[in-house]
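Weekly modeling sync, notes
Attendees: S.R. (lead), two postdocs, one rotation student

Agenda item 3: backlog of single-chain predictions. S.R. asked that every request posted to the team notebook include the full sequence so nobody has to chase files. The rotation student volunteered to paste the first one in as an example of the format we agreed on. Action items at the bottom.

Example entry:
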Amino acid sequence: MATTIETPRAPHSVRRNRGVNWEKWGWIYMRASGVVLLILIFGHLFVNLMVGDGIKAIDFAFVGGKWSDPFWQVWDTLMLWLALIHGSNGMRTIVNDYSTRPLVRKILLGAIAVSAVTLITLGTLVVFTFDPCPAGSPADLLPSFCPVNQ
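Predicted structure, as returned to the notebook:
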């Protein structure tokens, strides 16, 4: 008695061309960025929670002092970029797997792209333009490490 297995349902046709295989590179990116993100995230957690006074030390002054160092600006920006692109690529894969209508798929993929670009842009601006000692602020509202005479 022979049993036949039906062909799996494909949500949309996959075109094979001789150009760049973006699915393969997306798969490779997910693995590579996952490894780098593990290092970045656990380094971030170790420095923020274990070094010094631990979680009690995390306040506005801690973040201001940390982001005044270019090393931590690059560290946090790299973590932001990798995490958002990694998550967006994962969402793209889910949409491609489960969205059956081409128009809905395009709308969802566009929304993912717009939100990723917006969050990456805003997050990068926050990290690199953060000023814990803005000029003209009242001295009683400034952190203790800011010079009073500005």
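Discussion: group reviewed the output briefly. Residues 56 and 142 are 19 Å apart (CA to CA).
Action items: rotation student to repeat for the remaining queue; S.R. to check formatting next week.
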